[in-house]
Amino acid sequence: MNKLKVVLFSIVILVSCKDKLAPIAKNAIQPKIITEKTPHDTDDPAIWIHPTNASNSLIIGTDKDSNGGLYLYDLNGKIIKKSIPLKRPNNVDVAYKLKVGNTTLDIAVTTERETNKIRIFSLPNLEPIDNGGIEVFEGETERNPMGIALYTRPSDGEIFAIVGRKNGPSGSYLWQYQLESKNGVVQAKIIRKFGNYSGKKEIEAIAVDNELGFVYYSDEQIGIRKYFADPSKNDNNEIAIFGQNDFKSDNEGIAIYKKTESTGYILVSNQQANTFVVYTREENSNQKNKHIKIAEIPVSTIECDGADATSINLNKDFSKGMLVAMSNGMTFHYYDWNLIQKEIDKQKD
Asked: Start and end of every BPP domain (predicted)?
């Protein structure tokens, strides 16, 4: 290819990228902390809250590569540990007090795409407790696990993993597994298959609201779908779909900020616009199970895939909690919730 063709080709690429991705807004909220870089490609974070000292809480993030892994970060963004090597870990979630033998363990669970498994690690030491991993979507031609969220049933503390994949049939796109231990090793049994899928792009981001009992997932370029999280309800019908006209292109990472047991916000990454669209966590009183858009927050993350949030007072920098968001550049950004709330209040007014 001669020099003129190279220049023209580069211009075409730049124009194409510019059309798809918005620049960072001048009024974008800046993160309090940007983490140290991983070697490959960050994708999704989860927040683990320390049981006795919130200032010792940790962020768990995926580094999505064939030689990737889970990374533990402290609240200053420093990498403090890497897991054993994993084959393209995609998304990750955290749950507390899984019954293992005569004790309970906090856990991080991630999808491992190249092995068609989920991997389970104890927290905060990030050691595997799954005997090499648990196969998912067995017997299916479409496997390739991507999204994951953990549901803890309030009535009995049982923990379930809801797993998504790159492609799959509508109506049984998501599989739900109950986690249990045998001889100190965590296992999983399939108990439910559900979830509509448009076929437009893919489903990666999944989030569960334990207190209210709902699971949300991003059907990219379509909207956010809502279902009951508890399999004992025997109800696989879609409750609602919202956010269908609120995104530039892909609706991606979902974070739930809980102000009380039943109020707060659902934040969804507007990936190509570099913003988060904010919905009420509580349902619209006039339209049951609908969630109202109340704000759109410009942030400095670039093409955010995954996000998580907490309202726990972590330290002086995050007195009302934080939003953690993946960004291009192999990092995660920690946002002071006070700044997010200020912007929400301004737009609501």
From this structure: 14-344
pLDDT tens profile 282-299: 976 666 777 999 999 999
87-104 confidence digits (pLDDT tens): 999 999 999 999 998 899
Distance, in Å, from the CA atom of 313 to the CA atom of 118, rounded to the nearest integer, reads 31
Q: Where are the domains of the chain?
A: 24-348
Q: Are 164 and 109 in contact (CB under 8 A)?
A: no
Closest CA to 165 of 192, 141, 130: 141
Average pLDDT of the residues in 302-316: 97
pLDDT at 20: 56
- Cβ-in-10-Å burial (0-12, 13-18, 19+) of 107 comes to buried
Residue 218: which of 193, 245, 183, 243 has the closest Cα? 243
- 167 - beta bridge partners? none
Does residue 345 sit in helix, strand or coil?
helix
pLDDT of residue 18: 39
Mean pLDDT of 144-150: 97
Residues 6+ apart with CB under 8 A from 328: 301, 302, 303
Q: How many CA atoms lie within 13 A of 297 on its CB side?
A: 31
Would you state the structure tokens that stand for residue 124, as one six-digit string? 């905060």
User: What residues does 33 pair with on adjacent strands?
Assistant: 334
Residue 6 has pLDDT above 70, yes or no: no
Cα 202 from Cα 198, distance rounded (Å): 8
Mean pLDDT of the chain: 92
How is domain 24-348 classified at the CATH fold level? Neuraminidase (2.120.10)
Task: State the CB neighbour count (10 A cutoff) for residue 283.
Answer: 18
The dihedral of CA 91, 213, 94, 278: what is its sign? positive
* Residue 24 DSSP label: P
With H, G, I as helix, E, B as strand and everything else as coil, classify residue 177.
Answer: strand
| Structure tokens given for 37 | 């870089």
DSSP category for residue 287: S
pTM of the model: 0.92
**Residue closest to 323 by CA, chosen among 346, 293, 298:** 298
- Under 8 Å between Cβ of 228 and 220: no
